[in-house]
Amino acid sequence: MSNFNIRLIETPEEMRLVEDLQRNVWPDSETDVVPLHMLITAVHNGGLVLGAFIEEKMIGFVFGFPGIETTPDGPRLKHCSHMMGIHPAHRDGGIGFALKRAQWQMVSHQSLDHITWTYDPLLSRNAYLNIAKLGAVCVTYRRSEYGDMRDGLNAGLPSDRFQLDWWINTRRVESRLGKRSRPTLKLNHVARSGMRPFYPLHASDLTGNLPQPPEHVPPFEDRLLLAEIPGDFLDLKSKDFGLARDWRFFTRELFETAFEKNYIVTDFIFDKKEGNPRGLYILTHGESTLDEFE
Questions:
Q1: pTM value?
Q2: Least buried of 62, 98, 152, 207, by fewest C-beta within 10 Å?
Q3: C-alpha closest to that of 234 among 157, 163, 141
Q4: Could you tell me which residues are beta bridge partners of residue 85?
Q5: φ, ψ for residue 253, nearest 5 deg
Q6: Using CA atoms, how far apart are residues 213 and 11, in angstroms rounded to an integer?
Q7: What distance in Å separates the CA atoms of residue 173 and residue 160, rounded to the nearest whole number?
Q8: pLDDT for the residue numbered 197
């Protein structure tokens, strides 16, 4: 990966680059592009737009703004990280991690301790970055969060999303973003622990078939549980759209049930093996502090 640098985006000229990059990342839906005037207004009122550049070419960005959340003690401020995009030619080069790390630093300077954002829980690469590498956790499943989306990545499926909680001052997060970052979990760690997925998802993959979701959500009986999803959901969707919908509705039931039963998504394992990638969520039960989930 070529060297890149991260910098604050504040001028209309640079905001135009953010507009253009959105069209590359989410093609085929001009109405989903956040326009220059909205970006400028946000950064003039406490929001942040950060860009990743190779020389003067923008290859990635992250955009967020202040928000208010409801708590038992009343309203409190947070940072809502609304959008992050990486140019398709520059993915898997650490750009997303670098952008989120810069966001972490900037939001800390604003004296906020909580960042939230959403993503599709069936996207293994996003889950790996958000949960395994950044240390976010999830207890919130949102059905059809954005209604019917028309861009090339999301069209046709309910826009269900995880809403993540990134508690940026915890030891959990600092251990992942500090100079000596915590290594991510591997499949062999799971094998040594004796944990097994809810269901033998990849038995079907070995025969060359697309993975099928189980007919029923399994029982929730252990404190630590594994839930496997298709390793490459976008590839599966391109080959069998009906099967992709089946996975959406199965995982909707799975995670809504888990959160109702007081489970927290605390980690993610992603084996990027070419031709047979695997993605597994780790769910932890109980009211333990976030720092326990190291």
A1: 0.90
A2: 207
A3: 157
A4: 61
A5: -65, -40
A6: 47
A7: 25
A8: 60
CA distance 35 to 22: 10
Instruction: Please tell me the distance from the alpha carbon of residue 78 to that of residue 107, in angstroms, as a whole number.
Output: 9
Which residues fall within 8 angstroms of residue 74, CB to CB, at 6 or more apart? none
Q: Could you please report the per-residue DSSP string of 208-251?
A: TPPPPPPSSPPP--SSEEEEEEETTHHHHHHH-HHHHHHHHHHH
Tokens of 160: 């269900």
Burial readout 170-209 (b: 16 or more C-beta within 10 A, e: otherwise):
bebbeebbeeeeeeebeeeebeeeeeebbbebbeebeeee
Q: What is the mean pLDDT of the chain?
A: 88
CA nearest neighbour of 112 among 161, 176, 59, 46: 46
Average pLDDT score over residue span 31-55: 95
The residue with greater pLDDT, 189 or 116, is: 116
DSSP for 264-287, please give it.
EEEEEEEE--TTS-EEEEEEEESS
Pairing of strands 74-86, 114-119: parallel
Q: Closest by alpha carbon to 162, among 58, 252, 240? A: 252
134 neighbors 116 (Cβ within 8 angstroms):
no
Count of other CB atoms within 10 angstroms of residue 226? 18
Spell out where the chain has E strands. 5-8, 48-54, 57-71, 74-86, 114-119, 137-142, 161-167, 224-230, 263-271, 278-285
Distance between CA atoms of 226 and 196, rounded to whole angstroms? 7
- Total residue count of the chain as it appears in this document: 294
